[in-house]
Amino acid sequence: MSRAPQTVEHALGPIDRIPLGGGREFAVAGVRIAVFRPRAGGVRATAAECPHRGGRMADGFTGMGAVVCPVHGWGFRLDTGEAVVGEGAIACHPVRLGPGGEILVTLPAPARTG
Fold first, then answer.
1. In 3D, which of 20, 27, 31, 14 has the Cα closest to residue 108?
2. Taking burial as the number of CB atoms within 10 A of a residue's CB, which of 51, 55, 57, 78 is the most buried?
3. Which residues pair with 76 in a beta bridge?
4. What is the pTM of this model?
């Protein structure tokens, strides 16, 4: 019988840490992620690096539900990670705003050893 992977929700601070329409990179439990605050509202989280040349996704341009890598212009949907320009996809992470506007991202729990 297979068990579902365990996850942990991490608090990253208030949404005001990210400018409207912008992104910010966070290191969470050994994982680098990019968190975005779309102008349309809400919050999104993706892998921190573009799969093409390692561009910092948090420094990318956002709009129309996508982020464009600032290095070579590959674009990815913020909700699914699918490429809209370029190839492949980036990982997306479950993220939400808490009642007080705190960013809460869910990541896999660290593997237990021993």
1. 31
2. 57
3. 67, 83
4. 0.89
